[in-house]
Amino acid sequence: MGRIAAGLADPVHDAQMQFRDLLWAMSRPGSVVVLRGGLPAPPEPLVPAAYALLLGLVDGESPVWLDGDHPDASRSIRFHTGASMVAEPGQAAFAVVTRASGLLPLERFAQGSHDYPDRSCTVILQVDHLAAGAGLKLRGPGIAGTARLEIGGAPEGLVPGLQANRRRFPLGVDLVLAAGRSIACLPRSTDVEA
Amino acid sequence: MTELPSLRVRWLQALALASDAEAERFGQSFGVGDAAFELLRAPEVGLVMARGRAGGTGTAFNLGEVTVTRCAVRSSGDRIGIGWVQGRRLERARLIARLDALLQSAPSKAVDAAVTELEAARAERQAATARKAGATRVEFFTLVRGED
Amino acid sequence: MYVAVKGGERAIRNAHRWLAEERRGDPDLPELDPAQLREQLALGCDRVMNEGSLYDPDLAALALKQARGDTVEAAFLLRAFRTTLPRLLSSVPVETAGMRVTRRVSATFKDIPGGQILGPTFDYTHRLLDETLGGTDAEIAPAAVAEQPVDPVVPRVLDILDADGMIQPEPAAAEGEPTDLTREPLLFPVGRDAWLQNLARGDEGFVFALGYSTQRGFGSTHPFVGELRVGTVDLVVEPEELGFPIVIGEVELTECEMVNQFLGSKTEPPQFTRGYGLVFGHQERKAMGMALVDRALRNAADGQEQRGPAMDQEFVLYHSDNVQASGFVEHLKLPHYVDFQGELETIRRMREAAAREEGGE
Asked: CA C88, C93, C96, C97 torsion: positive or negative?
């Protein structure tokens, strides 16, 4: 059945601060941001940043997909947010990929529609580490010239997947990478080059 | 264990509906101040959409929202306590959650007696209003007109 | 050319400072505590809760104080506040049949089980100003108390009368989740669930006036109050982590069931039809207006000839909300210097063109 992990200690202020951090990271793709505020000890197998963002972003109207049977994570998210857990990735508003091997082709997640491109999935991908200044070359809105992002433990095929995602714009998914307390974002508007 | 939910429903309700003084006394009598709890969900104010039914019995519709507060704790005995109360009442939600965790392993006779007392106090408040309403009940007199 | 204009910060700051001073009024008089408004201007707070669509008497009182008694502005404040809170659940539909009534009257039948209960009403007062209320601490006689309390459950009048088939039965409940206008855009035609929600949060004056219009020929109602009841009901929720329903508080509601004469059609016998109103707090005018408009909208949905604005869904639903109306009408006060310059230019050019044509003739 799973054990419930504690939620945000100061839900209003922690969630607002972390949402602000996420906005900042999403509007400057490739920047690595350490989440501020209290990050509760996450249930297995989530990392602190992924768990905190879920607590702040998800509610009873945003279905969540997890990349496997994770009873502690699933029960904790359900308990705190009221979100339903879905087995079909295409139905999820938020998807959490806890390990590199769990990533599905990005087109399997909700892509939005031309009328409502926002009705797409936000994919939180847990990786080993994130570092700016080296690694993938990024270009696009929110980036002055080129940015570099190193993703430790990235799933195989991530770069071609992101390139295909970019070609589907304005449809497609937005990616939030999470390592420990840090995040970096790759929205659908970002050009990625190995 | 099977009859536990009904007593649990009663204490969750009675504690949400009790006056501040009643709830505090109840908490003290079960030693809620001395127990240790892990805060699973800090007291949080939110909204419940109150629903009505067309004609009182028909199709449900959304009437409007109501402020509520909820809280969840875990006791040292690994019981999860849940608190829900109408209004913006952080302390009450926390108190209910703590008591909910404690009472799950308290002797049910003592709990039943204490809950019954809270229920009686609420019933008395309701009866006082109902007696005022009773005094405004119309007594009709039939006026007989004409003959026969 | 588009010219952006900035400025006025100091003027705005000072305007708001003055507003705060005016709100306080004469400092020699004691300041109002919102709790006093909650207790002593309770019906004003009820109106704010209804139109703000948020049940919280303390917040309504605070909003009413902040808005200097402007109920529409106060409702706006509540609507803005609610957007900062998460929606946790929807309640189990309230059981108005189990309402603990403080007032319950029927204009259709004198002898109803449970009786006619007047409650604390303005009805039958003489509407003479009472100068003893002018700020003195006059002793108020406590309410009379009967030995025989009102029954805990007072049956709903129309449920009793349903039995002999003279009154149209309430249609069976529709399946599925009701429309929520705070989440979904209005797309016409809407169902009854959507218009009941819209009317419940609508402006009292608008809803009441539309109800009135149906009585005066802009509609087809000849209504009676089947029942009007005021009282408290339990607020029941079923949190998922519990898995069972619990009462977490109680709300005061006003419910009105109107009955209307219906002369019959090819498929239905002559009978009485119903209209329904349900609102927060003690708000009789609003509940009655809502019940009249509900009937008018149902008549229209049943295919009756449209005989007034109250039967026009788009007209009713698009114009009932005073917060929306404020947004659209009151924004006209805000600077439109650029738009207006544009229109001025257009008018000038048209006049010049007209003058040239005249000159050319």
From this structure: negative
